[in-house]
Amino acid sequence: MSTRYSQAALVVIAMSVATQAVAELDRLKDEDLAEVSGQGGIYLSGDISINEMGGPIENSYFGGCDDPDKKCGARLAYRLKSDGGWMVLDEIQGNFAFEGLTLRVRSVNSGFGGDGELFNRDVMEIGLPDIVRYNDVRFKIAGSNRPRPTDAGFRQTDILAVEMQGDVIMEGNLLVFPAGNP
């Protein structure tokens, strides 16, 4: 059989199989739907780049990554107490990718195997991805008296400089508990 005829035969076979595979969608009755179970949640994958070429702001503090007199990258400042100082992640830049981060609501109705009080409420469960890939990720952990470097009297003490490259294997879940009374 020639190649042209074999290709035509494959097309005819594929079309006949496809027409037989067409199915019609039907509504489920309430009693049939009651027997269907599933799980809710979100499955996320991502590839995130942060300030690979430097931040978009250039002023007396921030600038291009090639300028040694300026800070390069994103900044995240958070206050733990209303009258306390600021914890800072500064000069954040790089790329990280992950697959399989999950988010779902989970009901906790036990005393955590005897380690805590009974807790009969829902919590947010963050399922950690199996592997996170880091590519030239850098940031500094610091303490500061003001959230912004351009604020008057700003002082910052860098505590730790972090550089990450490669794969990190993550396992387990992180539970986020609601604050306050139900």
Task: Note the main attributes of this structure.
182 residues; mainly beta; seven-stranded antiparallel beta sheet; 7 strands; elongated
Plain-language structure description:
This protein is mainly β. It has one domain. Helices cover 12% and strands 45% of the residues. It has two helices and seven strands. It has helices at residues 3-20, 30-33; strands spanning 42-50, 74-79, 86-110, 119-127, 131-144, 156-169, 173-176. Strands 1, 2, 3, 4, 5, 6 and 7 form a seven-stranded antiparallel β-sheet that branches. A hairpin with an 8-residue loop joins strand 3 (86-110) and strand 4. The protein is elongated. The N and C termini lie far apart (75 Å). The relative contact order is 0.15. Residues 17-21 have low confidence and may be disordered.
Based on CA atoms alone, the radius of gyration comes out at 27 Å
Number of helical elements: 2
Helix content: 10-25%
* Helix/sheet category: mainly beta
User: Could you give the order of the helices and strands?
Assistant: HHEEEEEEE
- Poorly predicted ranges: 17-21
Distance between the amino and carboxyl termini: 75 Å
Characterize the largest beta sheet: strand count, sense, and whether it forms a barrel: 7 strands, antiparallel
Beta strand %: 35-45%
What count of structural domains? Answer: 1
* CA-based shape: elongated
Number of strands: 7
* pLDDT averaged over residues: 78
